[in-house]
Design goal:
The protein is mostly helical and 592 residues long. The protein is built from 22 helices and 4 strands. Strands 1-3 form a two-stranded antiparallel ribbon. It has a two-stranded antiparallel ribbon with strand order 2-4. Helix 3 runs antiparallel to helix 5, helix 6 runs antiparallel to helix 7 and helix 7 runs antiparallel to helix 8. It is globular, with a radius of gyration of 24 Å. The N terminus is likely disordered.
Length: 592
């Protein structure tokens, strides 16, 4: 799989890049029909390109192995990568099953499509400047979205701002700060022209200001971040506070359950959605994704034959109603006590007593609810007992709680393995906007306003309210973990804050020593017990170092770029060949 990705990106660097668009998401056509000259000859062609960009959001955050949200949470205090817990094994040459290398090339493929649209925007005659600028604004949003992710996953990366129309082997790395300045300027233009409302999956002014808030925070523009977030909060949005949607009449469930039903995320009733992907099982073949895969990625392997009963026999099995409901968990993310106990402000023995609806018993599947489902077992119906494991360390993968209210996505195809069916997925919602503004207030030293914004989110969840004295950057990120688990890219947001603290010289951090001493590493080590106990799972144990704050760039990408210099991140092989990154981006060409 790695070689396929490598060859793909080498082609990106060497050959003519062709855009691949469909004029109708629900009626896929052969990709070869859609060279840029055939697509971008009228407004409908540009609209078709936007459909492709919107679909890329689904490819980027949900689905099978190429599911970057898994990697984001596995690179945090909330989990570890199941099959490659030892981060020293993640190198510029190797990435076992994970996305720390492929995200780089995949993001540039998505960016390629945006550049074609942006570069060809004036090749047709528009009915009005407003129509032209609205299309361009959404193109800028998609490009900014992927560059924001890149600079917070990899740091300094090349900025490619134009359609590449021939062989090009002279890419150079730009500084993260130059790219942030560029996408900030683009988004400041974009929010003027994005529509206030749009069809599900399309980019609105709210989504523009939400992304701009994140960019302002990354650029240490805290006043502007507050202003952008306030525009969203004062816009046509409101947190959901009453039961709604497909399960509204189910008295067993609660509001938080409703909020995360896939069918409700793009519902007109849901005033909290700023942007969500559209992924429907009933769409024609080729227009669907492979499904959300949330029940595979985030559920423990409770069904596995290694779950032995008191007689040493297989107590669980991969069939039956429990299997259909809980799914075939084969976690790419092994969750940690930080996420399922610690942040709920209670201990592992009293978590049921928390008033927080997000941790209510009905919304989670906990260890005692994972039972032997093999009718032939002597312990049928009894809770799985980890003392029966051949190796007690098996419990790390086979037996941990999970937030069922977020991960449950029934498999619509009755013949498919239950891994998590098709469904819409949040990209941005209003609860995060409040937490982003709270963070901006924190950096400004306005802890009272930060607490007020945090309490808006906590009050909806029926959680205890906090005071200004409770506010810290650690508390804000605990609240983000409570509210935004597997919604917002965790690692990238932690890295963004690490850069802020290093830029401000807080707590002994600095940009000069970023790869040796950073907040991301210190926080992970403080809260992720896996790096302390170091269980042996599938032949490796959790180990991590400060330089893993940034992911490695694929060595094949660097070596293929024979006439330029793409830098490797410090700590990885190849960083000794780095050159100073470019600090400016030419607005007319997209390069220095």
């Amino acid at each position: 799989m790695k070689r396929i990705f490598n060859r793909y990106l080498v082609l990106f660097l060497v050959f003519l890049l062709q855009v691949s668009c469909s004029d109708d998401l629900l009626e896929p056509k052969p990709l070869s029909f859609f060279s840029p000259s055939n697509v971008f000859n009228d407004e409908a062609g540009f609209e078709a390109a936007l459909v492709t960009m919107r679909k890329a959001l689904t490819e980027g955050v949900t689905g099978g192995r190429r599911y970057y949200m898994v990697g984001e949470w596995a690179a945090s205090e909330a989990g570890v990568p199941t099959f490659q817990m030892d981060w020293y094994q993640t190198t510029p040459y190797f990435d076992r099953y994970y996305t720390f290398l492929p995200l780089f090339s995949e993001a540039y493929e998505f960016i390629k499509n945006t550049n074609v649209l942006i570069g060809r925007i004036d090749e047709i005659e528009w009915d009005s400047p407003e129509e032209r600028n609205t299309i361009l604004a959404e193109g800028y949003w998609h490009r900014a979205y992927w560059y924001y992710w890149l600079v917070n996953a990899y740091g300094d990366v090349p900025f490619v701002g134009q359609e590449v129309q021939g062989a090009k082997l002279d890419y150079f790395t730009h500084s993260r700060w130059a790219i942030l300045d560029k996408i900030q300027a683009d988004m400041e233009f974009a929010v003027q022209y994005l529509p206030e409302s749009a069809v599900p999956g399309a980019i609105t002014q709210g989504a523009g200001n939400h992304l701009l808030t994140k960019i302002y925070l990354a650029n240490l523009e805290f006043d502007k971040a507050i202003e952008a977030a306030t525009r969203v909060i004062n816009g046509p949005y409101a947190l959901m506070t009453e039961r709604f949607g497909v399960s509204a009449d189910d008295p067993v469930r609660n509001l938080i359950w409703d909020l995360h039903r896939p069918e409700n995320k793009n519902s007109p009733e849901n005033t909290e959605t700023i942007l969500a992907t559209v992924d429907r099982f009933e769409a024609p073949n080729g227009a669907q994704s492979t499904g959300l895969y949330t029940m595979r990625h985030y559920h423990s392997s409770w069904w596995h034959s290694r779950n032995r009963d008191s007689e040493g026999l297989a107590g669980t099995m991969d069939s039956g109603p429990m299997y259909d409901t809980l799914g075939r968990g084969n976690p790419d993310l092994v969750s940690t006590p930080y996420g399922y106990y610690d942040i709920w402000e209670t201990d592992a023995y009293n978590w049921q007593n928390t008033p927080d609806l997000r941790r209510s018993d009905i919304n989670w599947v906990d260890k005692h609810e994972l039972v032997y489902n093999n009718p032939a077992s002597a312990d049928f119906g009894e809770p799985i007992d980890p003392m029966n494991y051949a190796d007690p360390q098996d419990s790390v993968q086979l037996l941990f709680p999970f937030p069922f209210y977020k991960t449950y996505a029934p498999q619509q195809d009755p013949n498919a393995v239950p891994m998590g069916g098709n469904g819409d997925w949040y990209i941005f919602r209003l609860a995060e906007t409040y937490l982003l503004r709270a963070e901006a207030y924190y950096w400004k030293g306005d802890f009272a306003s930060a607490a007020s914004d945090i309490n808006v989110v906590r009050e909806r969840a029926n959680a205890d309210l906090i005071t200004a004295g409770d506010v810290s950057i650690d508390y804000i990120f605990d609240e983000r973990a409570r509210e935004l688990f597997i919604e917002s890219p965790r690692h990238s947001e932690l890295v963004r804050v690490s850069y802020i603290m290093a830029s401000l010289g807080m707590d002994g951090y600095s940009l000069e020593a970023f790869s040796e001493n950073n907040w991301w590493y210190d926080r992970v080590m403080a809260h992720n017990i896996m790096y302390e106990i170091q269980p042996v799972i599938i032949g490796n144990s959790p180990r991590i170092a400060p330089y893993h704050v940034l992911w490695p760039i694929d060595a094949d990408v660097i070596t293929a770029n024979t006439k330029g210099v793409i830098n490797q991140n410090e700590g990885y092989v190849g960083a000794e060949n780095n050159a100073p990154p470019l600090e400016t981006i030419d607005e007319s060409t997209g390069v220095e």
